[in-house]
Specification:
This protein is 44% helix and 28% strand. With 176 residues, it is of the alpha+beta class. The chain has a single domain, classed as Nuclear Transport Factor 2, Chain: A. α2 runs antiparallel to α3. The longest helix has 33 residues. It is globular, with a radius of gyration of 24 Å. It starts with a helix and ends with a helix.
Length: 176
């Protein structure tokens, strides 16, 4: 009989057996904070998904204005290029879209922590227009991308990224 009482007492201490009425406030408080954080990271991921669909894929300038902070910085902009909001929209709407009007974005994975969202994706399209000086080839192009975006107040605030556009360009130049 003492073993049973001792076992139950140990279970209470270890947190194994705790009736609903004995819930620990600190644990519940932490759970609430975690749930709020998960909610915010999901909201941030949604902002990035919207940007990829509405801005990159569809060229929607109104969505761009809604999703882009005026103090945005693109840390991956080429040297000498505009690393602010206008440089970003120029890349999509005056360089890539005219060359690949059927551009599609496929998101493979997203990982979020705090205010950062990392996205592994692919941009595809048929090169029916001139791309950075290369005449239309009619070839299907595929650009792999990994982006890290800092989302602040529901908007793109900072960006870091790597992509395979340089190797795609090299292939196009070598196939002439």
């Amino acid at each position: 009989m003492n073993y049973i009482k001792t076992g139950i007492a140990c279970a209470f201490v270890a947190g194994i057996y705790a009736p609903q009425s004995m819930a620990m406030p600190k644990l519940n408080g932490k759970e609430k904070k975690v749930n709020r954080m998960e909610t915010q990271t999901e909201k941030n991921k949604t902002v990035v998904r919207r940007f990829n669909k509405e801005v990159i894929e569809e060229g929607n300038v109104d969505s761009f204005k809604e999703l882009m902070d005026e103090k945005f910085i693109n840390h991956s902009a080429p040297e000498g290029a505009d690393n602010g909001p206008q440089g970003m929209i120029k890349t999509f709407n005056t360089i890539l879209r005219p060359a690949m009007p059927d551009m599609k974005v496929t998101i493979y994975e997203q990982v979020a922590e705090g205010d950062l969202v990392t996205t592994r994706k692919n941009i595809t399209g048929t090169q029916t227009g001139t791309l950075m000086g290369i005449a239309p080839t009619g070839r299907k192009l595929s650009i792999d991308v990994i982006d890290i975006v800092r989302v602040k107040n529901g908007k793109y605030f900072e960006h870091w990224g790597i992509n395979t556009l340089p190797s795609v360009m090299a292939q196009l130049k070598n196939s002439r």
